[in-house]
Amino acid sequence: MIDKISYKKNPLYFEELYPNIWIMDNHKWAYYAWEKYFHENKSIPNTLVHLDFHWDAVSDFHQSDEKQDLSWFFKLSLEEIKKLIAKNTYIKLDSFIAPALIKKYFKKIHFNCFQYDEEIGFYHPILEEYQVSQFVHESINDLVSAIQPNTPIVFDFDIDIFNRSDQMYDKGDLWSEADIRSYLKSCEPLILNAKVITISMSYGYSGDSDDTRYLTELVLSSIIDMKQKT
To answer: In terms of pTM, does the model score above 0.90?
Structure first.
């Protein structure tokens, strides 16, 4: 299963490797996976867990302080959404969560991120407009403890969280394997309760190409092993 992944930089690559477990190069395709789940199930868990070096809390639908007419967005079919994402307008690698807020899919977002050169999380007027609560956690254990057991969630993961040199493009300073496995083990309650799992390889941000493949294989094999236990 993991061997069939396209291990190369390709912003158009995304694939459902296992039921409701998606892999992609560019994180923007997570939004497509969420939309597809909603279209098939007529609902989606209203709690998002976002584990990533970056916040990805940009909204390209809000380019000014003026009220935007977004009625066109609600009329798009799943195929039209796919085309919009491919064009890299409105939904990009750092702005793919916002459209899910606009659609009111999520009411709660839990962050464990390490980027501190930008505003933490979403701009508060956006949270207020779409009635979303965000929670920023210093550690994965704090995050897990903050979510009630057996709460259905959407689990969104970027493997660049394990690269300390994230801001030096194409450079890797990875966590130790023991630390990575420990972090993933802490995520197990979240993974077991996840209805949808989206995983971004983020070529360039997750180290060099060898680093990216190593992290992808380690993360995916761990997550799939956990899911297969249920």
So the answer is: yes
**One-letter-per-residue 3-state SS of the chain:** CHHHCCCCCCCCCEEEEECCEEEECCCCHHHHHHHHHHHHHCCCCCEEEEECCCCCCCCCCCCCCCCCCCHHHHCCCHHHHHHHHHHCCCCCCCCCCHHHHHCCCCCEEEEECCCCCCCCCCCHHHHHHHCCEEEECCCHHHHHHHCCCCCCEEEEEEHHHHECCCCCCCCCCECCHHHHHHHHHHCHHHHHHEEEEEEECCCCCCCCHHHHHHHHHHHHHHHHHHHHCC
What is the span of the domain harbouring residue 112? 2-61+69-228
User: In total, how many domains does the chain have?
Assistant: 1
How confident is the model over 148-201, as pLDDT tens digits?
A: 999 999 999 999 999 987 566 788 899 999 999 999 999 999 999 999 999 999
